[in-house]
Amino acid sequence: MAFTLYSLIQAAILCVNAVAVLHEERFLTKIGWGVDQSVGGFGDEPGIKVQLMNLVRSVRTVMRVPLIAVNSVCIVLLLLFG
Amino acid sequence: MLDFPNDPNMRLRNSSVDGADGSQLFEDTSGAGSASQAGFPGQSLLSDPMSNLAMAYGSSLATQGREIVDKNLDRFIPISKLKYYFAVDTVYVGKKLGLLVFPYMHENWEVSYQQDTPVAPRFDVNAPDLYIPAMGFITYVLVAGLALGTQNRFSPELLGVQASSALVWLIMEVLAVLLSLYLVTVNTDLTTIDLLAFSGYKYVGMIVGVVAGLLFGRPAYYLSLLWCCAAIFVFMIRTLRLKLLSEAAAEGRLVRGARNQLRMYLTMTIAAAQPIFMYWFTYHLIR
């Protein structure tokens, strides 16, 4: 239970890394979560699966480049301070 | 891309002017003259034109610097919106604390609006505020330190550890609720700060439980915690029902349909997570 804010940041970095690593054509389309499979009807009910797929795609698009910087900082901090 | 639920329908909270017109958030207690620099004791200092110039230049620099800081700070932390949540007074705090511990007699849970902006908390007991959660959090950390001290397990670092653990779990809970609201595509005007306020209300119950346990022993702790858990469960359900569910379902009529069911489950889960957290954070304080 002894959490610090830094462990929360580390957990968040690990989760975002996990989402960013999912490959589009090798994995996501194979399990039916690709971007071309999410175009549903235009009603007002996207459904949870479509929302999740959109979320995964958005996170991967937005966080690709900042994750490089954040991961490098995290690695350096871990090497220096353990 | 990411269209969090608070964008389309967000009611502006920072549009009420805290000046002399319209709805004031805070009373003006600044008294008479605020910017007069006349009547300085050092008259010789003022009569020198060079120092006059220097003083004028210095004060204009300070004003500019303050404006830049304000503008940049406002980009990251919406200060004007935060002011709304702290516009409370003693009567409101008393009524809200009573409501948190005994919500069963209260009938009208709607937040009243004034020309499309929510009324400040001091005028409406149903509006969420950040004063009680902030004070509750600090009091919880202090009471936890006190409880650990009675068991001879206290050290000053423990206060910091307790505070950061509780803060981390609060942030995670707010993020989880935000994520689930996004996934279920609820169109609501709940902002992030509202969710933070609602998640912070459980500290009141925790403090009551721990203090009762310290004063009267374990049975009192369990009894008061049970009472406060039930109270906060009912409070959250009644408050969130109006905000998350559609109009018909909120009035109590049974509305079929997968979406409304999902929203009902979401409301129940959020409300049920509060007692779990309350127990989890306090059971190690009472041995």
TrEMBL record, chain A:
GO terms for biological process: endoplasmic reticulum to Golgi vesicle-mediated transport; protein transport. The chain crosses the membrane at residues 62-81. InterPro entries: Yos1. It comes from the Eukaryota. Regulator of endoplasmic reticulum secretion that acts as a key determinant of brain size. Required for secretion of extracellular matrix proteins. Required for correct brain development by depositing sufficient extracellular matrix proteins for tissue integrity and the proliferation of neural progenitors. Acts as a regulator of the unfolded protein response (UPR). Belongs to the YOS1 family. This is Immediate early response 3-interacting protein 1.
Automatic annotation (TrEMBL), chain B:
The keyword Protein transport applies. GO terms for biological process: endoplasmic reticulum to Golgi vesicle-mediated transport; protein transport. It is a multi-pass membrane protein. It is found in: Endoplasmic reticulum membrane; Golgi apparatus membrane. Residues 1-38 are annotated as: Disordered. Pfam families: YIF1. The keyword Nucleotide-binding does not apply. InterPro entries: Yif1_fam (IPR005578). GO terms for cellular component: COPII-coated ER to Golgi transport vesicle; endoplasmic reticulum membrane; endoplasmic reticulum-Golgi intermediate compartment; Golgi membrane. Keywords: Endoplasmic reticulum, Golgi apparatus, Membrane, Protein transport, Transmembrane, Transmembrane helix, Transport. The chain crosses the membrane at residues 130-149, 161-183, 195-215, 221-241, 262-281. It comes from the Eukaryota. Has a role in transport between endoplasmic reticulum and Golgi. Belongs to the YIF1 family. This is Protein YIF1. It comes from Amphiprion ocellaris (Clown anemonefish).
